[in-house]
Amino acid sequence: MTATIIDGKAFAASVREKVAAQVSRLKADHGITPGLAVVLVGEDPASEVYVRNKGKQTVEVGMNSYEHKLPAETSEGELLELIARLNADPAVHGILVQLPLPKHLNEDLVINSIDPAKDVDGFHISNVGLLATGQKSMVPCTPLGCLMMLRDHHGALSGLNAVVVGRSNIVGKPMAQLLLRDSCTVTVAHSRTKDIEEICRRADILVAAVGRPEMIKGDWVKPGATVIDVGINRIPAPEKGEGKHRLVGDVDFASAAEVAGAITPVPGGVGPMTIACLLANTLTACARANNLPEPE
Length: 296
Ligand code: NDP
Fold this sequence. Notes:
Its EC number is 1.5.1.5, 3.5.4.9. InterPro entries: Aminoacid_DH-like_N_sf (IPR046346), NAD(P)-bd_dom_sf (IPR036291), THF_DH/CycHdrlase (IPR000672), THF_DH/CycHdrlase_cat_dom (IPR020630), THF_DH/CycHdrlase_CS (IPR020867), THF_DH/CycHdrlase_NAD-bd_dom (IPR020631). The chain is α/β, with parallel strands linked by helices. The protein has ten helices and eleven strands. Strands 1-11-8-7-5-6 form a six-stranded parallel β-sheet. NADPH dihydro-nicotinamide-adenine-dinucleotide phosphate is lined by residues 142, 165-168, 170-172, 189-193, 196, 209-212, 230-233, 270-271, 274.
């Protein structure tokens, strides 16, 4: 293997440490404790794990965590009422509605009912527009984590060719916006892209956010490129025993690591950075709400 492994787990721990130090200063100097409310509707097992981890890490950095678990049959009206209450609650600085929502709930409507200043996921239409026009906004956590790792590894990103595979509102599109903001030349590839392998081979920075296990092979990667693998896919692992699974990314790690200059592993790459950035966003929202200088 030739690539440097970008250790997202260690990086995320350092981000959380920084957030924790700033939280304790906020408490000591201003008597303010940042608060994050997480809303989970229904019983999706993966979402339950995410919500539990978010709550645990929120408390670990010294913030208040408010968990709202609602039954799957919750009506849109009931959910909107809860969000209105959280919007009005001065102890709540960040609100996150865990996606996906059950089918009978309109996700766009629900997300856009969150006060944009408390929208720590950065999915509200106002934050999407602010990011696209280069204004101060809440930035979606997963692409923000990817950007932080890229800046840490490369320093300035200006002039680099970046290819983002995937165009979801949650990852691909905001990732492309952030890279553009950092003056990369950005190409967004998706399921209809022609000659995708050739396009990927031109990338100095290759971000994979597809949801297809190990789709991107080593021969799609430009020698020396930095590869950020957002994908989290559970695949059967009979070698670990009957019915066992393991996590892999959207990149075929073994072959890509032979060619890339640097690469994020799965697990232990982008994943841990996402929650760390959620906590950083909550701290930022809290500082803004109290007219205090923004944390760096
Ligand atoms: P979506 O399913 O919303 O989007 C997937 C994107 O990949 C779409 O734009 C789709 O194109 C594109 N795509 C699908 N098949 C192909 C193909 N064969 N070739 C090229 N492009 C393709 O997924 P998300 O963006 O929400 O998530 C992507 C991955 O990242 C998933 O594995 C998810 O689990 C993971 N994830 C990880 C997070 C983390 O914290 N690490 C957070 C969020 C997601 P089209 O638009 O044309 O359909």
